[in-house]
Amino acid sequence: MVDLARLVAGAVSNAPRQPSRPAGTDPERLSVADYGGAVADWLAGNMRYPVILAGHSSGTQVAAEAASRDPRVAGLVLAAPMTDPAHRRPDRLFHRWLLAGRREAPGVLATQWPEWRRAGPRLIAHLVRVHRRHVIEESLRGVTAPILVLRGREDPMCTARWARSLATGGYVELPGAHDFCWGDPNGWSAPMRAFAEAVARSG
């Protein structure tokens, strides 16, 4: 999350902590909408200004759900959005994921392994299943804020045509594949800042 006033003034972004869940709640029963609701609750309890909400990969689906619930979201950034209708079938999605792994910057996947090990195979399988079935276009119908879409030029999981169709506030392609923002964390700073400035001017 980005505090809009502070970002335009040259300051920082905020990231919500992993949402807690009620005792006895099975994480393998949570949907993308549940995660989006947790983020919306975090915004309501922690943010005082209009914000720009950003998500990457499957996080774009969570961000879209949250933005559809919170009118204080002044802008939404979808970096490498998921899941492209062309690749929603399990076999196609897995094949595209393998292709993406071969195109990522050196060391990117190694940074993700600890999180995968912590989650474990059952939770990972559940997350893949619910995110594959989630239709981000339906969530975005409830988003009134402008939407900036960022895509890696070599991303095999997200086609340019589909990514462009989601954008209402700009579309930018950047060097790299699906995890372009991991390989070059500064790469998406300029388009996000320009987007924030445009949102601030329009507000």
Relevant terms:
203 residues, alpha/beta
Commentary on this structure:
With 203 residues, the protein is an alpha/beta fold. The chain contains ten helices and five strands; from the N terminus they run E-H-H-E-H-E-H-H-H-H-E-H-E-H-H. Strands 1-2-3-4-5 form a five-stranded mixed beta sheet, sandwiched between helices. Strand 2, helix 3 and strand 3 (73-79) form a beta-alpha-beta unit. Helix 2 (32-46) crosses helix 3 (59-67). The longest helix is centred in the N-terminal third of the chain and has 15 residues, at 32-46. The protein is globular, with a radius of gyration of 16 Å. Mean pLDDT is 84; it is low at 7-12 and 19-24.
Distance between the termini: 18 Å
Biggest sheet character: 5 strands, mixed
The residue ranges in which pLDDT falls below 50 over 5 or more consecutive positions are: 7-12, 19-24
Relative helix content: 40-55%
From the alpha-carbon coordinates, what is the Rg to the nearest angstrom?
Answer: 16 Å
Output the helix-strand order: EHHEHEHHHHEHEHH
Give the number of helices.
Answer: 10
- Strand percentage lies at 5-15%
Biggest sheet, spatial arrangement of strands: 1-2-3-4-5
Shape: globular
Average residue pLDDT: 84
Strand segment count? 5
Structural class: alpha/beta
